[in-house]
Description:
The structure is a homodimer. Chain A is α/β, with parallel strands linked by helices. Helix content of chain A is 44%, strand content 17%. The first copy, chain A, is built from 10 helices and 8 strands. The first copy, chain A, has an 8-stranded parallel β-barrel, surrounded by 6 helices. In chain A, strand 5, helix 6 and strand 6 (145-147) form a beta-alpha-beta unit. The longest helix of chain A is centred in the last third of the chain and has 19 residues, at 204-222. Residues 226-230 of chain A have low confidence and may be disordered.
Amino acid sequence: MIIVALDPPFGPNGSYTLVDILEKTRDLAYGYKVGLPLILDSGIDVISKIKKATGSIVIVDLKLADIGDIMVSTAIRLHEKGADGIIAHGFIGVENALDKLVEESTKRGIQVILVASMTHNGSRRYIDQHFDEIVEDALKLGVHGIVVPATRPAFISLAKRKTRGQLKIYSPGIGAQGVEPGTAICHGADFEIIGRAITRAFDPRRSIVEIHDKIAHKVIECSGYRESST
Amino acid sequence: MIIVALDPPFGPNGSYTLVDILEKTRDLAYGYKVGLPLILDSGIDVISKIKKATGSIVIVDLKLADIGDIMVSTAIRLHEKGADGIIAHGFIGVENALDKLVEESTKRGIQVILVASMTHNGSRRYIDQHFDEIVEDALKLGVHGIVVPATRPAFISLAKRKTRGQLKIYSPGIGAQGVEPGTAICHGADFEIIGRAITRAFDPRRSIVEIHDKIAHKVIECSGYRESST
């Protein structure tokens, strides 16, 4: 399933609006992910705007990495505008940080997703050294999900084994960052987060349709099924 | 020197406005630090509003911890609104993250400050294990400064020795988080970041005046001077 990451600009050279992208993708996107650049451009009300235009879930990805009080204060504001999920860094640690965030989010019905590794090379330097521990923290905290990049398929498989379906796995890094659609799902991810390959495409509609097809084929392939007609 | 952290609500029970706090503190604050809650409440234009009202520097503390492209995209937007400095996490790593942010920020004259440790207990779990390496990354990247909490005075002394004045040291954790004003400066910090002890005080003006005095006394004490009149 596809989560579309909405980072401006939209279309080649910013030739589309946010609404264009939402209209062209809403029946094929499971949900949308909103980051800092869009929030800074359009304000926090963009969350409810996306929900209204699409009827889909909205995950707000500010990669929260602050003390508990500030993260709670942020989460409350995002939830008031309709955010279904929020992404925070596992690296920040539990005590007086993630513990407070998860407690308050659980009360309010906000789903917390923890970053356990990232797509860029710099992630190997510090974050990835603690990948196992962060996944264990996520399990203990009982969060909704974790982010594990498609650029580290072995990490996805490992996370899948460790979490046994208790946590949803969200996987960025498909498309513009070089990984084939379907790769993350084949390794155990629940969602592939895809941004630029759709939102900056000349034809975003065609792009999401093609990516959908590629995921379907890849999943058929990796699950060992072979259809006689193909 | 004092940087006032502007996290809402202001005054006891939110009885002051942001403008109240700025008016009561502007001649005694070296600068202001703005975090996510205020940006979400007031939008990005709050940065230029604070600068106009005070004439002081504004550091935007979104604790950036994303891939390079997203951090650059964010930094450009903040700079356009007048941000003098931005805070990012050292733990995110250099390659394809901090390298890009620092390159683009240097071009535009934005000062980058890296978090090397944090005030909460959870910081000990992962971040603090890499404190030395993050300070070294900061030196190699040639950033403007680092954040080292007043709750870890030994880390401040260590950072001061390692950086030899090449990096400014910003220290949160004074006041509401339990550390005496002046403690961080006595250990080698350049700035003490103080929030709630001023912004939620019944009398913010009196509070910042008292904190100023306490810092002055502490610094006289720790630097070994004794005035005959005291």
